[in-house]
Amino acid sequence: MASTPAEYIQHHLQNLTYGKLPAGYERADGSVLDQATWTIAQTGLEARDMGFMAFHLDTLGWSLLMGAIFILLFRSAAKSATAGVPGKLQNFVEMCVEFVEGVVKDTFHGRNALIAPLALTIFVWVFLMNSLKWIPVDYIPGLASLLGLPAFKIVPTADPNGTFGLSLGVFILILFYSVKVKGFGGFSKELAFTPFNHWSLVPFNLFLEILGLLTKPLSLALRLFGNMYAGEVVFILIALLPFYVQWTLNVPWAIFHILVIPLQAFIFMVLTVVYLSSAHEEHH
Amino acid sequence: MNINLTLFGQTLAFAIFVWFCMKLVWPPITAAMAARQKKIAEGLDAAGRAQQDLKLAQDKVSNTLRETKEQAAQIIEQANKHANAIIEEAKQQARTEGERLVAGARAEIEQEVNRARDQLRSQVAALAVAGAEKILESQVDAKVHNELVEKLASQL
């Protein structure tokens, strides 16, 4: 365990990174690698030096676990779905489905079989990933350090890789449907001739529209990441207090997250639907 | 806080989850919901129809009841009338029968009287003849005086 508060915080915000260190790299324990090696980063510096060729094992693991919970829960309800009196699980699942369907119907006016399941997946998955914040900040990282892992961070949405991974998927879908619905020419024309329909303003339009396009995944990912990361930092700061006063701040903050966690999941879902809806519509 | 391959791992997982949800989760659940919706709509419809039927049946029952009551009242009235008529008729019959009996009796009495009178008359005639014989001390020829005697007897 880290000793100073700064180290403690840094330790809690460090992901368990598995990546490639270059040959000749001097590791934290002083040993020098004689060839490029895939290994687990022992310090934040090592993780940083791995660059792009690295995985956050904790982010991937926990997000996959949450996704698997979502899939198994909903699949088991779907398998035994009956038109008769629904069980408790089916009731819950139907509530989620109905809620998402309502949002999609209100926002998305095209016909696309992907949008509603996509929205459901985003909502439930992001909700589950966010909800890992309710687990006290030291429990699972503490367990991990007992197992000898150098760092562990359990909330995948407090890792920009997690949120950008999602928004990248959404971005690809936005591009895909823009081209599919309007054709490549139509989409290019839309980028080049809006908002100012004049040939002399094409570069300006392109700059504006492409910026707008790129802003969409960026704002999606950063909003979720920012909220979750900031909340996590506050939880960690509270955890630095003496244990007998922690609850005075911890409890209200956790209760506040009853609002924040579903809200962020909801916003991510709604914005995804809105962006995809605008990708389906012709602009004039 | 480093951007690295986790990004693509996350995107891939995302794509797989969405695909799974679209293929294996969403359709059965929405199908079940739609089926239930239909079932509920049908049930409500049937309930509405049953209620209407019930109302119709109740109307019919009360109508029938009313009609029956009216009919019963009519029948009772008719029966009363009929009974009255029968009584009246019986009274009439009794009266005429009584009158007839009385008249018969009277006729019989008169007949008796007449017969007694006839008897008496014939006896009176014989008596008168006998008395006259006694008085005249002679035989009265009944044949000769028959007319006279008859006249006398009829005057009685």
Automatic annotation (TrEMBL), chain A:
Transmembrane segments: 60-78, 113-132, 162-179, 199-215, 227-247, 253-276
GO-annotated molecular function: hydrolase activity; proton-transporting ATP synthase activity, rotational mechanism
InterPro entries: ATP_syn_F0_a_bact/chloroplast (IPR045082), ATP_synth_F0_asu (IPR000568), ATP_synth_F0_asu_AS (IPR023011), F0_ATP_A_sf (IPR035908)
CDD domains assigned: ATP-synt_Fo_a_6
Membrane topology, as annotated: Multi-pass membrane protein
Coiled coil regions, renumbered to chain: none
Key words of the record: ATP synthesis, Cell membrane, CF(0), Hydrogen ion transport, Hydrolase, Ion transport, Membrane, Transmembrane, Transmembrane helix, Transport
Keyword Magnesium: no
GO cellular component, as recorded: plasma membrane; proton-transporting ATP synthase complex
Domain of life: Bacteria
GO biological process: proton motive force-driven plasma membrane ATP synthesis
Keyword Plastid: no
Compartments in which it is found: Cell membrane; Membrane
Function, as annotated: Key component of the proton channel; it plays a direct role in the translocation of protons across the membrane.
PANTHER family: ATP SYNTHASE SUBUNIT A, CHLOROPLASTIC (PTHR42823)
Family designation: Belongs to the ATPase A chain family.
HAMAP family attached to this UniProt entry: ATP_synth_a_bact (MF_01393)
The name this protein goes by in its record: ATP synthase subunit a
Gene label: atpB
Automatic annotation (TrEMBL), chain B:
Membrane association type: Single-pass membrane protein
Cell compartment(s), UniProt: Cell membrane; Endomembrane system
Molecular function terms, GO-annotated: hydrolase activity; proton-transporting ATP synthase activity, rotational mechanism; proton-transporting ATPase activity, rotational mechanism
Keyword Hydrolase listed: yes
Stored CDD domains: ATP-synt_Fo_b
Example of a GO cellular component annotation carried by this entry: proton-transporting ATP synthase complex
Spans traversing the lipid bilayer: 6-26
Chief location category: membrane
Pfam family, one: ATP-synt_B
Presence of the UniProt keyword Ion transport in the record: yes
Coiled coil, from the record: 65-126
UniProtKB keywords: ATP synthesis, Cell inner membrane, Cell membrane, CF(0), Coiled coil, Hydrogen ion transport, Hydrolase, Ion transport, Membrane, Transmembrane, Transmembrane helix, Transport
Oligomer status and interactors: F-type ATPases have 2 components, F(1) - the catalytic core - and F(0) - the membrane proton channel. F(1) has five subunits: alpha(3), beta(3), gamma(1), delta(1), epsilon(1). F(0) has four main subunits: a(1), b(2) and c(10-14). The alpha and beta chains form an alternating ring which encloses part of the gamma chain. F(1) is attached to F(0) by a central stalk formed by the gamma and epsilon chains, while a peripheral stalk is formed by the delta and b chains. F-type ATPases have 2 components, F(1) - the catalytic core - and F(0) - the membrane proton channel. F(1) has five subunits: alpha(3), beta(3), gamma(1), delta(1), epsilon(1). F(0) has three main subunits: a(1), b(2) and c(10-14). The alpha and beta chains form an alternating ring which encloses part of the gamma chain. F(1) is attached to F(0) by a central stalk formed by the gamma and epsilon chains, while a peripheral stalk is formed by the delta and b chains.
Function of the molecule: Component of the F(0) channel, it forms part of the peripheral stalk, linking F(1) to F(0). The b'-subunit is a diverged and duplicated form of b found in plants and photosynthetic bacteria. F(1)F(0) ATP synthase produces ATP from ADP in the presence of a proton or sodium gradient. F-type ATPases consist of two structural domains, F(1) containing the extramembraneous catalytic core and F(0) containing the membrane proton channel, linked together by a central stalk and a peripheral stalk. During catalysis, ATP synthesis in the catalytic domain of F(1) is coupled via a rotary mechanism of the central stalk subunits to proton translocation.
Family membership noted in the UniProt record: Belongs to the ATPase B chain family.
NCBIfam families: ATP_synt_b (TIGR01144), PRK05759.1-2 (NF004411)
Identification of the protein by name: ATP synthase subunit b
High-level lineage: Bacteria, Pseudomonadati, Pseudomonadota, Gammaproteobacteria, Pseudomonadales
